[in-house]
Design goal:
alpha/beta, single chain, about 190 residues, 4 helices, two-stranded antiparallel ribbon, Rossmann fold, 9 strands, seven-stranded mixed beta sheet
Length: about 190
């Protein structure tokens, strides 16, 4: 039996096709919020920019956690998972360190690329994040040279700050790592 996943969709803009294509590689299929085995919290606008989305995603996260079902957060989704910790509202651009930059407000266009502690080249379309020193009681799996958290895990919650679903990540070592990590952890 295939696993089913649920991606919260509402009146906010969200391109779901890249997520569906990525999750096909795990042999998973879409489901609704009641039948899904796994919740996918996708990327998108900064927390606070779309209050109706924030409210719904926090509500559905609570539901999945209460049912002890796994949750995967991607970019904004990881920020939801870690929302109780201090978040950097704008990571300053510093050419000496890694660049974490929102390119255009949506997923189109080129990403800023950076290396992580695990040696991945990952895509960045975010300017918010969390410092490694501020995250408590979570397993920090990966981070950048400026100590911005890039991947975390706790219980059945897994998040990455980058976008494994974007086309430029197809067949990269980082995407393959994401897929194998999801298989191991979820």
């Amino acid at each position: 039996m295939k696993r089913k996943y649920y991606i919260p969709i509402g009146s906010w803009p969200l391109r779901t096709k890249p997520y569906h294509e990525l999750l096909k590689k795990l042999n998973w299929e879409p489901g609704d919020s009641d039948s899904a085995d796994v919740l996918i919290l996708p990327g998108g606008a900064d927390l606070g920019m779309r209050p109706e989305r924030d409210k719904y995603e926090f509500k559905i996260l609570k539901k999945f956690k209460e049912m002890k079902k796994p949750v995967i957060g991607i970019c904004r989704g990881m920020q939801i998972l870690l929302h109780k910790f201090p978040m950097i509202k704008h990571i300053p651009d510093n050419p000496i360190l890694e660049q974490h930059t929102t390119i255009s407000g949506d997923w189109k266009g080129k990403s800023t690329w950076h290396k992580t502690h695990l040696g991945f080249s990952t895509n960045s379309r975010h300017h918010q994040g969390f410092l490694k020193k501020d995250i408590k009681n979570w397993n920090i799996i990966d981070w950048t040279s400026d100590n911005i958290v890039e991947a975390v895990y706790k219980d059945n919650l897994f998040g990455v700050q980058w976008h494994p679903e974007h086309e430029e990540m197809n067949n990269t070592f980082a995407q393959e790592w994401w897929l194998s990590t999801v298989k191991k952890l979820i």
